[in-house]
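re: ur msg from earlier - yeah i can do the cytidine-5'-monophosphate complex, just paste it... oh wait u already did. ok heres what im feeding in:
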Amino acid sequence: MLKGKHIVLGITGGIAAYKSAYLLRLLIKAGAEVQVVMTPAAKEFITPVTLSALSGKPVVSEFFTANTGEWHSHVDLGLWADAMVIAPATASTIGKMANGVADNMLVTTYLSAKAPVFVAPAMDLDMMAHPSTCRNLQLLKSYGNHIIEPATGELASHLVGKGRMEEPENIVKILDAFFEKSQSLAGKRVLITAGPTYEKIDPVRFIGNYSSGKMGYAIAEEAASRGAEVTVVSGPVSLSVSNPAIKVVKIESAKQMLDACAERFPSSDIAVMCAAVADYAPAHSSDKKIKREGHDAPVIELVKNPDIAKTLGGMKRKEQVLVGFALETDNEEVNAQGKLSSKRLDMIVLNSLRDAGAGFGTDTNKVTIYTADGRRLPFDVKSKAEVASDILDTIESL
Ligand code: C5P
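and the outut:
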């Protein structure tokens, strides 16, 4: 999968920098084109001559070449890359990346990179365990960067603990698996509903719910990163998408969501019903704001909204995959299984409001997936991005 890929290999000043030469050689052997960017401190550990000989390209370290004034564009490098790998990544560089301290070519390239970024920390065990390092790595994760966890073993200080840079062979395997996954849904069309619906009472009031849309949008990003063409039919949320392969169709009511989905479902391969659709809508909405003065409290008559998932279940062809969600407070498994069959779903993702870290508005979720072919897959509390990945892995297994 690495053949022809453009990799920026960032090297920082740590003892493990000697392993970077081997990593570079493996990447070249796998067919990648590699541009090395070193921090000034990295040159104390390994020479640019070794690295430029192995990569076949001059190593970049400064913003310009002193004698000719030739400018090295970090923006161009950031755009050229299909992936950026920082190995080894010292505590200092991790801190700079997390906080935008752009005082060298490596960090400016990182800040300009549009491609996925992999960070392989290497440092002494106490530095690794320090709250500052942990917080900075957490920040990098929250930016969507991939942390290649260091191994536990003997360190340069002869102490034994967590902090050894992952072995070059494994870093190459991780990159290879990443590029393989990035095409696993190529050519597939994915339809996703997300967020709440608003059911209009009058021009300024509605019936709605607390859904943030985060889970649906995370699934959209994950599906797009696997090469799918994604449409999100979204209720009112304050989120935006970052992947250009995602089209967002904004709607407000359940009825509008149903129309948008029924139109697109026949040409979709996969549909994931993540929206928290209002169960009821006002039977009549007023064109004018309902006034309080001089009136008794109004009684709002409600009518049942259409069940979008169930409607699509009725339209479903054999080769299409339809996925629903169940947000339950009690009798979780029975309720989820019931919805799986009554809506003719291929799988259902259960989140229980009894679990800490699950449900509306949070950045994490804890789910159990039930498939129509009889599997029950419980997962731990994870970020919604990681849950999205588990959900798509299971969809792919179908
Ligand atoms: O029946 P319940 O609302 O619990 O079912 C939840 C699942 O059904 C979710 O996948 C949700 O997006 C979908 N749903 C729907 N239209 C509705 C109600 C729920 O698509 N009116």
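cool cool. The chain has a mean pLDDT of 93. ping me if u need the other ligands too
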